[in-house]
Structures are given as structure tokens and as C-alpha cells.
UniProtKB/TrEMBL annotation:
Domain RNA polymerase sigma-70 region, first and last residues per copy: 34-100
SUPFAM superfamilies: Sigma2 domain of RNA polymerase sigma factors (SSF88946), Sigma3 and sigma4 domains of RNA polymerase sigma factors (SSF88659)
Family in the record: Belongs to the sigma-70 factor family. ECF subfamily.
Stated name of the protein: Sigma-70 family RNA polymerase sigma factor
InterPro entries on file: RNA_pol_sigma-70-like, RNA_pol_sigma-70_dom, RNA_pol_sigma70_r2, RNA_pol_sigma70_r4_t2, RNA_pol_sigma_r2, RNA_pol_sigma_r3/r4-like, WH-like_DNA-bd_sf
């Protein structure tokens, strides 16, 4: 017999820093505990970026493989969560580049649907639904006209909630570049969406 069935549950209580250090030494059970702990957040992040649950699952799997192979590059074991989220963001961006799939657009519909369904259970007013649908389509069109680097920054900030520093690390650019791209994206979107205010 190898290993105790209770071991994974005991590892779930171990702090990130210790799990990351043990995983870096080749402890697969410690790495699996990290994956169980942070996998759902990684998946949610990837799904928000890609708009697809199936793609998110693939991205998380790829991100975990990359993390396992690069554990020796993690300088601060206690920061493993942020490190995993940055890898997930990078893998998501890579996926979007390959697929030419706009990350935020499907998430926009999902966000709009969940907001309208959180009401009092009544059917939405058809006119309001049509206006909302038109607003979403206008924002999709406006986002699609943004330069790709501005769109990526905007999606990572607005849909993924990443900080300027995290976006800079994900896209391998300076935080000043992130600020500039976000400012230009917001100005362009505000101008295009003026009639919907």
C-alpha cells in the first residue's frame, strides 16, 4: 500500500508557502493540493478571459503543467497564488492569440444576463431587453475596433480584475505601458459609447 487516503485532506490545511516549497522539491501531492486550492479561481479567471468553460479547463491544465515545470523559478513560495494567476492570464492571452477569439465579448453577454436575471424574477421588459442587447452589441463592436494590445489590457482589467502590475507581468510590458493603453482604450470606448450613456 502506498500513502494514506487522509494525506491529501491533511495537505489542504498546509499554508501555500510550505506546499510550494515541497512541490519545488518534487512532492506531487503538495502540488496537487495547490492545484485543488487555486484551480477554481484559475478556471474562473480563464473562463472570464476566453468566454468558454471548455477552453478554461484546457488553459488551467496547461498552466498547471507550466507551473510544475517552472516551480524552481518561483522566488517567493508564499506568492504562489498570484504566480499561478499570472501564468493562467498568460496562457489565456496565448490562447486568444492563437484562436483570434475576443476574450471579453462573450463574458459581456454572461455578465449582462446574470445582472438582469438577479432581479425579482419577473420577465424583462422587451424594450429594455432590446436596448440592452443593442448596447452590448455596440460595446462588442467598439472593443473589436480597439488595437489588440489595448483590448487585452482592458479585458484583463475590467473582466479579470487584475492590477496594473499583474497586467504588466502577464503581457510582459511596463506598468506605464499598461496605464497608457488602458487610458487610450477607455477614451476610445467612451467616445464610441457616448450615445448609450
Amino acid at each position: 500500500m502506498s500513502g494514506s487516503p487522509a494525506a491529501p485532506h491533511q495537505l489542504d490545511l498546509v499554508p501555500d508557502a510550505l506546499l510550494a516549497a515541497r512541490a519545488a522539491d518534487g512532492d506531487t501531492a503538495a502540488f496537487e493540493a495547490l492545484a485543488r486550492r487555486h484551480g477554481p479561481l484559475m478556471r474562473a479567471s480563464a473562463r472570464r478571459l476566453t468566454g468558454s468553460t471548455a477552453d478554461a479547463d484546457d488553459i488551467v491544465q496547461d498552466a498547471l503543467i507550466q507551473a510544475w515545470n517552472q516551480l524552481d523559478s518561483l522566488r517567493e513560495p508564499a506568492a504562489v497564488k498570484g504566480w499561478l494567476m499570472r501564468i493562467t492570464g498568460s496562457r489565456s492571452i496565448d490562447h486568444l492569440r492563437r484562436r483570434r477569439y475576443d476574450a471579453g465579448l462573450d463574458a459581456l453577454d454572461t455578465t449582462r444576463d446574470s445582472r438582469s436575471s438577479s432581479g425579482q424574477g419577473s420577465w424583462p421588459d422587451p424594450e429594455a431587453a432590446a436596448v440592452d442587447g443593442s448596447r452590448v452589441e455596440a460595446l462588442k463592436a467598439a472593443l473589436s475596433r480597439l488595437p489588440e494590445e489595448q483590448r487585452r489590457c482592458w479585458v484583463l482589467k475590467e473582466f479579470n480584475g487584475q492590477s496594473y502590475e499583474d497586467i504588466a507581468r502577464t503581457l510582459n510590458i511596463s506598468t506605464d505601458s499598461v496605464r497608457g493603453r488602458l487610458a487610450r482604450a477607455r477614451i476610445a470606448l467612451a467616445s464610441t459609447m457616448e450615445e448609450w450613456r
